[in-house]
Design goal:
The protein is of the alpha/beta class and about 500 residues long. It contains twelve helices and eleven strands. The protein starts with a helix and ends in a 6-residue tail after the last strand.
C-alpha cells in the first residue's frame, strides 16, 4: 500500500491535467457568480453606478411614501427615495430616482391614487417639451409644475351641513332643468333643431358639433403659444405694459371708448361692405407680402442701375451743349424750305399709293385664299405616297412629279439633227387594245385602238359612275384634302383586248 502510494506521488502528472482548478475552488467561484447575479437581478442597478435623482416640490405629499412608483405614460420609470417637509412652509420635497436623460426642465409631476376612491399613490410625470434641456442630477422641479389630488375627506369637510343641503338642492334643480320639457312660450326664438326638446337632449345634440369646435379651439390655443420660445411670456409682458399705460391715462381711455362707440354706430349701416372688406383683407395681405418680397428682390438691381446711371446724368449738360449744333441743323431741316417742299412733292405719290393699297385688297384676299388652298389641300395631297401595290415607289407624290419631269427631259434629249423630240414607245405586240365609246367626239374618234406587248391589268383610278360636282362658290381651302388612296383610287376594269387574230379576251 505504501509502495503504491509512493508510486502515485512520484509519478509525473500529464500535461492535459496541468493548470485545471481544484473542485473546491471551482465550486466557490460558481457560488460567488450566483450571488452577484441574484443581487443584480433584484437590485436592478450596479453597486458602482451613481444613482440619478431629481426632486419635486409639492404643496402636499398626499400620503406618498418611500418606494412609491414614478410613472411616465403608465410605464414605471423610477421610485420615490425620499420625502422631506420644508421647514417654515407647508411644502414637501419628494426625491425620486429615475433614468437619466428622461425628464426635461418643463416636465410636470402629479400625485395620483393607484386605486379609485383612495389607496396607494404614485407620481405621474410628463417628460416635457423636446426643445427644453434635460434635468441634471439633483435638480428640483418647482411647485408651479406639480399638483396633488384633493382627498375625499377634504371635500366632505368643506361641505358642512348647510352647504351640503345647498349642494343637494343645486343638483336637484340642475337635474330638473335638464329633464324639463319647454312650453310654447319657451321655444319662441329657439333653434328649430332643438325646439320642443329638453335641455339634456339639446346638450346631447350639441355634442355632434364638439369635434369641430374642439379642433378649432385647439388650433387657436396652439396659435396662442407662438412660433418661438418665450412668445407667450413676451405677449403677457407687452400686455402688462399696455394695461399699465392705460391705467395712467384713465380720462383718455374714457374718451377712446366714447369715440369708439360713436365710430361703431357709424359703421352699422355699412356693416355688409365692412364684412366684404375684412374678407378681402386676407388675400390682399398675401398678395401684398408677395409684392413686397419681389420689391425687396428688385431693390439691389435698382440700386446698382441708379449708381451706374449717375455718370450719365452728370454728362447730360455736356451732351446737350454738344447737341445744340445738330439741333439747329435738324430744326432747319424740318422747316418749310426743306421738309415742307419734300412733303409737297410726296403728296401726289402718297395719294396714288393709297389708291393702290385700296385696289390691292381684293388681290390680297384672292392671294390669301390661294395660299390657304396650297397649304391645306395641294401640299398635303402632294405629301401623300400613292399606293400602287407592288409598283409603289415609296416616294411622296410631289417627288414622283419631279421624277417624271426628269424622265421626260431624258426622253427629249437631242441625239441627232432632227432637233429636240420626245421618243415614246407607242406600241408593238400582239395585244390589240380597244377603248370604250367616247361620247361627245366625232364618229371616227369615239373609239381608240392600240397595240401592247402585255395585256392591261386594269385602269387606275377607275372611272367614276358620275361626274363629280363642281362647286365654284366654295373656296378651295374649305375642302378637305383628297383621299388619294381611298375608294376612288381603286383599280377599275381594264379595256377590252383583242388579239392580232381578231379574237377578244
Amino acid at each position: 500500500m505504501t509502495d503504491a502510494r509512493a508510486g502515485i506521488v512520484g509519478r509525473k502528472i500529464p500535461k492535459r491535467f496541468q493548470g485545471r482548478l481544484h473542485p473546491i475552488r471551482a465550486g466557490a467561484l460558481a457560488l460567488v457568480v450566483v450571488i452577484v447575479g441574484t443581487f443584480l437581478a433584484f437590485s436592478k442597478s450596479l453597486p458602482w453606478q451613481q444613482p440619478f435623482e431629481v426632486k419635486g416640490v409639492f404643496e402636499s405629499a398626499a400620503n406618498i411614501r418611500l418606494e412609491s412608483p414614478v410613472r411616465v405614460a403608465g410605464v414605471e420609470v423610477g421610485k420615490v427615495t425620499g420625502v422631506e417637509h420644508e421647514d417654515g412652509s407647508e411644502l414637501t420635497t419628494v426625491t425620486m430616482r429615475v433614468r437619466e436623460d428622461l425628464l426635461h426642465r418643463d416636465a410636470t409631476l402629479k400625485i395620483r391614487p393607484r386605486l379609485f376612491l383612495e389607496g396607494n399613490f404614485f407620481v405621474d410625470a410628463t417628460q416635457g417639451s423636446p426643445s427644453a434641456d434635460f434635468l441634471d442630477d439633483g435638480d428640483t422641479i418647482p411647485v408651479t409644475q406639480t399638483s396633488y389630488p384633493v382627498q375625499l375627506d377634504q371635500v366632505l369637510t368643506s361641505l358642512q351641513s348647510d352647504t351640503r343641503k345647498d349642494l343637494q338642492d343645486l343638483l336637484k334643480g340642475f337635474g330638473a332643468s335638464l329633464q324639463r320639457k319647454p312650453a310654447g312660450a319657451d321655444d319662441k326664438g329657439q333653434d328649430p333643431d332643438v325646439a320642443g326638446e329638453s335641455a339634456g337632449v339639446a346638450l346631447n345634440q350639441s355634442l355632434t358639433y364638439a369635434p369641430g369646435a374642439l379642433r378649432n379651439g385647439s388650433i387657436v390655443n396652439q396659435s396662442f403659444l407662438g412660433t418661438e420660445r418665450k412668445d407667450l411670456r413676451k405677449l403677457i409682458a407687452g400686455l402688462a405694459k399696455v394695461t399699465g399705460a392705460l391705467d395712467q391715462n384713465e380720462e383718455q381711455l374714457k374718451d377712446f371708448f366714447t369715440n369708439f362707440n360713436t365710430t361703431m354706430a357709424g359703421l352699422v349701416p355699412v356693416q355688409a361692405d365692412l364684412q366684404e372688406a375684412v374678407r378681402l383683407l386676407g388675400p390682399t395681405i398675401q398678395k401684398a407680402n408677395a409684392a413686397f418680397g419681389h420689391l425687396a428682390e428688385a431693390l439691389p438691381p435698382t440700386r446698382a442701375f441708379v449708381q451706374a446711371f449717375i455718370p450719365g446724368v452728370e454728362e447730360t449738360p455736356a451732351t446737350i451743349t454738344a447737341a445744340r449744333p445738330w439741333l439747329r441743323q435738324f430744326t432747319a431741316l424740318l422747316g418749310k424750305p426743306e421738309l415742307g417742299g419734300l412733303l409737297r412733292e410726296l403728296r401726289p405719290m402718297t395719294e396714288s399709293f393709297a389708291k393702290l393699297i385700296a385696289r390691292s385688297i381684293p388681290l390680297y384676299r384672292q392671294t390669301d385664299r390661294a395660299s390657304r388652298c396650297f397649304s391645306k389641300v395641294v401640299i398635303p395631297a402632294g405629301d401623300v405616297v400613292l399606293d400602287d401595290g407592288g409598283s409603289t415607289t415609296g416616294a411622296e407624290g410631289f417627288k414622283e412629279f419631279w421624277y417624271a419631269l426628269v424622265g421626260l427631259t431624258g426622253e427629249s434629249q437631242n441625239f441627232d439633227g432632227n432637233g429636240p423630240y420626245t421618243r415614246v414607245a407607242t406600241g408593238g405586240g400582239g395585244n390589240l387594245i380597244k377603248s370604250g365609246k367616247l361620247p361627245g367626239r366625232p364618229l371616227q374618234d369615239q373609239q381608240l385602238f392600240g397595240n401592247a406587248i402585255a395585256p392591261p391589268q386594269g385602269t387606275r383610278p377607275h372611272k367614276p359612275t358620275k361626274k363629280p360636282a363642281y362647286k365654284p362658290n366654295i373656296s378651295c381651302y374649305k375642302n378637305a384634302a383628297p383621299k388619294l388612296n381611298g375608294p376612288a383610287s381603286s383599280v377599275g376594269t381594264p379595256d377590252e383586248v383583242t388579239s392580232a387574230s381578231g379574237g377578244s379576251r
